[in-house]
Amino acid sequence: MYRIILAEKPDVARRIVKALFSSKYREIEFRKGVKIYTAKDDQGNTIYVVSASGHLYNLDFLEEYNKGWRYPVLPPINHYRYVPINEKQHFLDAIKYILTQLNDPEIIVATDLDRRGSYIAMQILESLIKIPLNSSKIKRMEFNSLTEDELREAYKNLKPMDISRAYAGWSQDRLDLLWGANLTRALTWSYRKSGGKDKRVISAGRVQTPTLRLVYERIKEIENFKPQKFYIIKAIFQTSKGEQFEATLTINNESRIFDKSKAESYANLARNVKWGIADVKTRLEYVKPPTPFSISDLQSESQRLYGFEPTKTKSLAQSLYEKALISYPRSGSTMFDISPGKHDKTYFKKTLTALYPYKPDLVKFVQETTNFLPRQGDKFDGAHPPIHAVKSIHDTHLSHDELKLYELIFRRTLAILSPDAHIKRVSITVNVANLLFKTDGSIILTPGWLKVYPYSKIHEERLPDVTPNEKLLIVNVKIEEDETKPPPHYTQSSLIKTMEKLGLGTPATRDEEVRILLQRGYITGKTKLTITPLGKAVVEALINKVPEITTPEMTANMEKLLDHIENAKLDPTTFYSMTIKEVNKAVEKFKNYEKQIGETLVKSLLLQTITTKTKKQYKTKKRYKGPSFNDYLVE
Question: pLDDT of 612-622, one tens digit each?
Answer without folding.
Answer: 344 444 444 44
